[in-house]
């Protein structure tokens, strides 16, 4: 029996299961570093990394951009007579791809999986026809759902937003979609449900009641949570920050903004952060900064694994290639205790001119290898001990005596000032931060694989 799923037609017929062949392999269709069963610390690589494939970029996106039409002629769309038939073929191709690649999870929007119908009821019927099929294929392919979501940004009705739309009728239609997408996620055993508020923001303040829109967004999220919990959903809800694009300003600007929003509206018990590398870049932050900020608030959840193009101001969603970036990201994730319900979802697309049938595999293999290397280096940082040890020592003056009292909140400003005055200036504060020393050590780890 093949260790992957193939439907009525084999869409990637020249490719079988992708295997680990090691760093010396010159086979473009093999993993060089991602060795799923290899133990890193206490867990296997695959359990640390929890890779997920994004249905939208991998099986729906066709290479079209604002300047040109489709370049990816997906056979699973071309050979279908109706949109529902195309959706079935696409699903066969998706599960064939995911199982041949050996990723454990996938993520989807409602409209990736099933076409919109002529009415909300028909849309829901379409979705649940495909959900029934996905449930069977998940089992046949040995693939699980990391999270589901609803596409509340592509259709023209959402041009002024979804939950933040100035028209109540659109908010209600958004609810119909979210309710069905939550039901679908539960039916498929999804471990999370994500909100990316693509158009939950504004294009101009001159026509916007900002407070009302933010209140409505929070109200909507709370209603979605209440509904899902009532249906027995035990998974995590994720908010995915992004500063802009397509809106001029998105209310989920960055991690710190989302933390403030969740706490302000009392949503921080159920919602966590889904951090995307490219969105961090657009917000002017490092990927690791966003991860550490979420972890510091106890709200780290999941990751959209990709990269941006630092010289572009838009969301290029490229596959990750930087060991340095993935090392620091995985270090942040390991420090946060690793993934629980979350994982590394490849919210990344092959370039418009990557038109060979193997390119989709090669892109994912590279992304998985890049995170596998990042994980190895992160583990090396931890077990090497020098870097975490330095950080620990750097704050050691708070471990005892007056420092510990300050740390625990046992001093007033008056008492603290008296301690400072009594100690005098001396050489206080003139201790090296050793940044370059630590960067050199990190580079040694990087080449030490
Ligand atoms: Mn993106």
Defining key terms:
alpha/beta; 17 helices; eight-stranded parallel beta sheet; two-stranded parallel sheet; 449 residues; binds manganese (II) ion; 11% strand
Give an overview of the whole structure:
It is a single chain. This protein is α/β, with parallel strands linked by helices and 449 residues long. Strand 13, helix 12 and strand 14 form a beta-alpha-beta unit. Helix 7 runs parallel beside helix 8. The longest helix is centred in the last third of the chain and has 26 residues. 43% of the residues are buried. Manganese (II) ion (MN) binds next to helix 10.
Q: Would you tell me the overall average pLDDT?
A: 97
Shape: globular
Total helical segments: 17
Q: Supply the helix-strand structural class.
A: alpha/beta
What bound compounds does this protein have? Answer: manganese (II) ion
Number of beta-strand segments: 14
What's the helical proportion of residues?
Answer: 40-55%
- Largest sheet geometry: 8 strands, parallel
Question: What distance separates the N and C termini?
Answer: 35 Å
Low-confidence stretches: none
Strand order of the largest sheet: 7-6-5-14-13-12-10-8
The gyration radius over C-alpha positions equals: 24 Å
